[in-house]
Amino acid sequence: MRAGATPIRELVEIDERRLLRRLDDLSQRGALEAGGIYRALYTPAWSSAMDLVAAWLKEAGILVRRYAVGNLWGRIEGSRGGRAIVTGSHIDTVRGGGALDGALGVVAGIEAVTSLWQTFGRPTRILECVAICEEEGSRFDTNFWGARAIADRLEPGEVDRARDAEGVTLAAAMRAAGLDPANAVNAARRDVDVFLELHIEQGPVLEEHGARLGVVSVVAGTAHLEVTVHGQPDHAGAMAMTRRRDALLGASAMTLAIADLALRMGQPAVATVGTIAVEPAQVNVVPDLVRFSVDARHTDAERRRELVTTIAEVCKTIGRERGLDVEVRTLRDRPPVALNARVADVLRRACAAAGVEALDVASGAGHDAQMLAAAAHTGMLFVPSIGGRSHCPEEATAAEDVVLGTRALATALRELAYTP
Ligand code: GLV
Ligand code: MN
Ligand code: MN
Fold first, then answer.
1. What is the DSSP secondary-structure string of 150-171?
2. 89 forms bridges with which residues in the sheet?
3. C-alpha closest to that of 43 among 200, 173, 130, 157
4. First CA to last CA distance, the chain
């Protein structure tokens, strides 16, 4: 990547009405009656969203390719070729998610590339936008599927191992969506120079600082644990309270202790128990088995390790005190990732061209960018989340900030892809 340190004078214009209308249109794909959106990987809602994105690219005369794991690429050849300048984000959502997580980076990426193409014509560098097929881990017991595929970080046998709640394997779901699982490895790209991702912050920091744009320095590392607590089933009426080995009471004590550990470690340490299953789940039986998830994050690798280790120790200690057997299994363990300083500088200068001083921020949320950082010089731009809300139907960003972020993205892409 080459980038000068001179200020960027010209802010790239975009079609803000088209941008906002498309965000709205995309939010209808997978909209739930109860509120929020659910676009899970390889489902009809997901396919319909991908078709919409493909239609927008075709409308702009941009070459569309959808292959391997189903990532959808729009490509403009550069007059000088070389390694590509890419922008994008993920098309999938959590269950009951909002209209911007992932979708903003996809729609803004298309808008930025379309505006550049229509205003300035052929770039010198290859310029691409991508709708990444999956990031959230909301259907299969895996995540970052699309970005890991691009970064050549799929695990051997993953297509046959990863399953959804109904037991459908990734491979079977790919076939049902018209994709060949044997082709997954061909998603890898070794020719990406720069990857830029525009995303909503998903937390309250920008809003608290009154900042309209943020440039991300580091993405927090995440560990996902599965804790299984074994107790003893007994009669809910006849067994004395003092003689019980109640797995749910143990899991409840662990849940409180886990939150307390993160609280005492202090920001940016966070730990969340997000799922819990109880057996035999009967009103008159003392719970015998509980399985719950833990999501633990920190931006510092050492502190994150300490948090995860202490969580496991505390669960085991509580188990011992209550006569319960406890197993802690690590499902996923992703280290914090520092993003590229030179790309961050280009983004900061693009924000300045938009008249805004960007705040340097750390991302508590996980992003495709953290996987693509292994394959390309990677940077992220944040717009504020109203009330810090995300992963919920209320997720929103002021329209003028959506537009501002997209302009800054387009301006950074111009700086990178239209080098003389
Ligand atoms: C995805 O949004 C994550 O941070 O888990
Ligand atoms: Mn996201
Ligand atoms: Mn998300």
1. HTT-PPTTHHHH-B-TT--BHH
2. 131
3. 173
4. 14
Q: Confirm or reject: Cβ of 134 under 6 Å from ligand 1.
A: no
Is the minimum distance from the CB of 366 to ligand 1 under 6 angstroms? Answer: yes
List, run by run, the mean pLDDT of 10-residue segments along the chain (420 residues).
72 96 98 98 98 98 96 98 96 98 98 98 98 98 97 97 98 97 96 98 98 98 98 98 98 98 98 98 98 98 98 98 98 97 98 97 98 98 98 98 98 96
**Which residues have CB less than 5 Å away from ligand 2 (the ion)?**
101-102
Look up residue 117 and give its amino acid: W
Cα distances from 220 to residues 154, 265, 288, 306, in angstroms, run 21, 15, 35, 14
Give the closest ligand to the alpha carbon of residue 391.
3
pTM score, whole prediction: 0.96
Quick one: tokens of 150? Answer: 């691009």
- For residue 417, give the nearest of 76, 69, 74, 32 by alpha carbon: 76
- The rounded Å distance from CA 90 to ligand 3 centre is 9
- Identify the residue whose tokens are 């959506």: 402
